[in-house]
Amino acid sequence: xxxxxxxxxxxxxxxRDGRITKLALAxxxxxxxxxxxxxxxxxxxxxxxxxxxxxxxxxxxxxxxxVMMEVTLANHRQADFERFERAISAxxxxxxxxxxxxxxxxxxKTIAPDIDAYQRLVDGLLDRELGIDRYFTYIxxxxxxxxxxxxxxxxxxxxxxxSAP
Length: 165
Description:
By secondary structure, this protein is an alpha+beta fold. The chain has six helices and six strands, in the order βααααβαββαββ. A hairpin with a 6-residue loop joins strand 3 and strand 4.
């Protein structure tokens, strides 16, 4: 799907406010409401917009420990990666997992009530024999920046058309 400057303005607006009204979105996009709404639906159907979410401040609910974890698997067959990824996907305390190149295989972001709960999570992963060879833990002491809004306008020059990723 080719995106233009109007599509990028729509994406930027709904990322910043998923509850934006049709009228306000149309104003930000520079369109009348009906064509704007049709473009929004087209972006959703194309899978470019995958959902609308509330951003929750976990520390306002209860104390939490945010922990980053590097994981290296013992074996590197496709089946090993698939088994690990299936298991990780089913654990709610693991809120993000990235397969990466370089010296480790995965980087995980976890949220737990405390460090003891995080360690129980790790122990459970090791007990499941998912092929973890090594892991390193990094306790988050301060969040400096954590954006949920992607800088979509920087993906392509405004006004130029380019295929969406």
